[in-house]
Amino acid sequence: MSATITEKILARASGQPRVSPGDNIWVNAGILLTHDVCGPGTIGVFRREFGENARVWDREKIVIIPDHYIFTADEKCRRNVDILRVFVREQGLPHFYDPGTATYRGVCHLALPEAGHVRPGEVIFGTDSHTCAHGALGAFATGIGNTDAGFVMGTGKLLIKVPPTHRFRFEGALPAGVMAKDMILRVIGDIGVDGANYAAMEFVGDTVQELSVDERMTLCNMAIEAGAKNGIIEPDAAALAYVRARTNKPFDAVRGDPGAAIASERRYRAADLVPCVAEPHLPSTYASAKARADVKVDRVYIGSCTGGKLTDFVAAARILSGRQVKVETFLVPATAEVADGLMREQIGGQSLVEIFARAGCCEIAPPSCAACLGGPVDTYGRTHGNEVVVSTTNRNFIGRMGSKNSAIYLASPLTAAASAVAGHIADPRDYM
Amino acid sequence: MATSKTSVIRGAVYVLGDNIDTDLIIPACYLNLVPTIPEEYRKLGTYAMAGLPDSYSPFVAKGQEHTAYAIIVAGRNFGCGSSREHAPVCLGAAGCRVVVAESYARIFFRNAVATGEVYPLESVERLCDVFSTGDQAEVDLAAGSIRQAATGRVYPLKPIGAVGPVIAAGGLFGYARSVGMMPGGQPA
């Protein structure tokens, strides 16, 4: 019988010929990812349950990427990174990206694939809900809590339920000014923040195949905002080239069978999509950017695992080149590799760094999660009042960026940059 | 952990609507606290539901370590958002025993079960329009129902399903030991 890509990956990882939606199965983890917010608690669970002297199940398969609260004076945050350091030393873990050293990378969901830890066909568990981003390279990847992660750390296994698949098919060329963020916000707007609860969201069609790997990550990253267990895109030549450039480790890419049973399919014509925003306070409150041109903006924020990739900054720079921002504009590259790219990439003979400086943006911050999720009071870009923010991040819940009174509009980097220039929510097509 | 083997939970109800996200349950500024450190576990309890707008009555009164509400009644998609286990942990640490919602976001539900901090039960009807904050109620885990003390009305809850054995075993680790996925005996 035929099976979806998600079912085939899970069947292989559980040592069974086939699995069906609803089956509860023990799967072997390919990678366990954790960071400074959930790592210390995961380590606490691991020690409590397996013993102070226990060893992790496989040193090669645990990846620890501190990224949330790195550039802060908060003592507990600094202590939490120290807890990771001690554990890494005790266990002899080779894959640790330590802040303050040359190995530091930044936001885990971009750092993980950059460092070659995401491979097609693998099962990836991470102590972060946006772990679903890694489905962009054809892996089964999902977010878990500390207790589950502590269990994986000791056993390499986890009991999970096989999700049904909801398929989202996009056809045709994306219109100018429309990005992956507009695709996924449209989907979430249509199905709601629990529209794919417990399910796999599979993105297919020629529009998806034409997207860069960066843009595919934006689609899969936000699958959780519809409640999905994982987002996934079948790996093609572009995905395989991305992976092979970053790791020598073998992998066995998986593709779904034609005719596999799925729970639903929705079709979108790319030509029908427009630049959009998600209004406060849910990612599902869809509106076209044009329809919200009356919303005055205090701040623009470009960063995070969703919207802080090199592709995102190139898009913003296309709008900002030769223009001036009217509002404070915060730029936080997701990783050190992206930060390097801002110096290297050029538009019209100017580096992105120069373009942003001439446009009047704030100085580019060092890579981290920063204000995507509020955090300590000294977090870069955190809101403290009733700011109206247009942000390329993934959540606009009440208080998400710090202050309960600020209003966050989620948008693509093109729409965010256009809004920075206009001083109100703006359609980027008017600035291209 | 807050759960025990008693099958009836009595107490005051705190009522919430749809899509109560993890930033409302425990704002990111408190994620510097580590749930497995006992002092910080207790501290997390004092911040339970601290992200709610100021128009809500506090879930944990100022200066108190525990909530006056043993039961949360909510609408759809309770716990959406982050994978932060701090969310069910802060509810359990505050002394909340059970959430009765129309539906749950997947990771919150899983974390509630895996930690054994709160029972995540599903109502058949939309009860957040029936109960008011401060109502007294009684959740009967064995019978699968919630009773509103003032009216005497009893509302059914959905069967707990496949995770029942995991909850009965005291969470993921207890279950794994019971089915032989981990060496038996008490945790170290």
Overall geometry of chain B comes to: globular
* CATH architecture label of chain B: Alpha-Beta Barrel
Per DSSP E runs of 2 or more residues, the count of β-strands of chain B stands at: 7
The unreliable regions of chain A are: none
What oligomeric state best describes the polypeptide chains here? heterodimer
In whole angstroms, the N-to-C terminal distance of chain B is: 16 Å
CATH topology of chain B: Aconitase, domain 4
| Major beta-sheet overview of chain B | 7 strands, mixed
Number of strands of chain A: 18
Order of the strands making up the biggest sheet of chain B: 4-3-2-1-5-6-7
Strand order of the largest sheet of chain A: 12-11-18-17-13-14
Rounded average pLDDT of chain B? 92
Distance between the termini of chain A: 49 Å
| Radius of gyration of chain A using CA atoms only | 21 Å
State the name of the first-level CATH class of chain B: Alpha Beta
Number of helices of chain B: 6
So how many helices of chain A?
A: 14
Overview of this protein structure:
The complex is a heterodimer of chains A (432) and B (188). Chain A has helices at residues 5-14, 39-50, 75-91, 108-114, 146-155, 180-191, 206-210, 213-221, 237-244, 304-307, 310-320, 336-344, 352-359, 413-422, and strands at residues 24-28, 31-34, 62-64, 123-126, 140-143, 157-161, 165-171, 200-204, 230-232, 264-269, 276-278, 286-288, 299-303, 328-332, 346-347, 350-351, 388-391, 407-411. Chain A has 432 residues and is α/β, with parallel strands linked by helices. Chain A has 2 domains: 5-248, Aconitase, domain 3, CATH 3.30.499; 276-431, Aconitase, domain 3. Chain A has a 6-stranded mixed sheet, with helices on both faces. The longest helix of chain A has 17 residues, at 75-91. The mean pLDDT of chain A is 98. Chain B is of the alpha/beta class. Chain B has a single domain (8-178), classed as Aconitase, domain 4 (Alpha-Beta Barrel). Chain B contains 6 helices and 7 strands. Chain B has a 7-stranded mixed sheet with strand order 4-3-2-1-5-6-7. In chain B, helix 2 (38-46) packs across helix 3. Chain B is globular and about 50 Å long. The relative contact order of chain B is 0.18. At the A-B interface, helix 2, helix 3, helix 5 and strand 6 of A face helix 4 and helix 6 of B.
